[in-house]
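Assess the record.
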Amino acid sequence: MTTISTEPPRTALSWKLVPAVLLSASGILLFGMENDPAGYSVLALSLGTAAIVDAQLLRDLALIAAGIIIVSLVPLNADLSISHMALMGGALTLAVLVPWLVSKYVYRENIIKFPVNTGRKWPLTAKLYLIGVVALGYFILPVYLISTGVYQNWPDASDPTIFWRLFLGVNAVGIWDELFFICTTFTLLRRHFPDWLANILQAVVFSSFLWEIGYQAWGPLLTFPFALLQGYTFKLTKSFTYVVSVHLIFDFVLFLALVHAHNPDWLPIFLY
């Protein structure tokens, strides 16, 4: 009996990889290097080559590109003024809503999902992983933030108003990361590439975005593996709730480490 493979031929996969790699490269240019002319040019080239290679790939990359473009139009920094938080919050919201709305109501598809209540209990390994995330954040984040000085990319939270705005901002961006990079970008790329490859492609854009947010110096050595782990975790759990829990727990340690970095006498719970 002859088995018919459902996987695309390697040559087809190779050609589809070209526009996808260009899309990821545009994220490096737009967010990592803040070179908008080059970034938009590479993004346009990505969509142009996708139009030649595969119509479905073009549709999916266009959704991701829409989100990337929307986010690239606003400054990505830790300015905690009400006007900037509203501007950035609006852009991040649209970057998730536009691809989802177009996919659902224009393409008539239901591929972009944000599974909150999966009906599955978290196994012991998943709960232990959350504890591991706390431990990793506790030992790594203060050393990274203070030794490199990148904590100065975030404002001093000595003022109570800034304290709570920083807490809100860190958590809001963490939730958005999972909505856009994992539930949207990773999901759409998985239609065309093996999971491991789709995960690498999304992680490049994910870590590039975090670079502009403030995770600079040797930050990519921290953010890129984190982005890969989040994609892999979503693949295993199929749960938006779980990956957000991982992210927010890590970000809570980040928040405490930022407060400590600006005010060493505060929160004397860190070793560094």
